[in-house]
Amino acid sequence: MLTGKQKRFLRSKAHHLSPIFQVGKGGVNENMLKQITEALEARELMKVTVLQNCEEDKDVIADQLVEGTKAELVQIIGNIIVLYKESKENKQLSLPR
Question: Which ranges carry the CRM domain (predicted)?
Fold first, then answer.
């Protein structure tokens, strides 16, 4: 689990990122989870947008993404979900203790 200090650090790092994935009407599916997992391995930190036409609540979507990708939820702000997962091969961020 991330500490408050680590979440603050990650939020500041995520601030300038653009969302890479969008969750729309179809919700979260296996293929999307696979792609997001690969993107997290490459980047560690990313944003996902929940579109207006998505039938699920953004909190439910966030839970599905966290469960499916084994990532940490950094924050949900508006319709944007920020995810973090430490990369095995491609470590870029070093979290404060």
Answer: 1-96
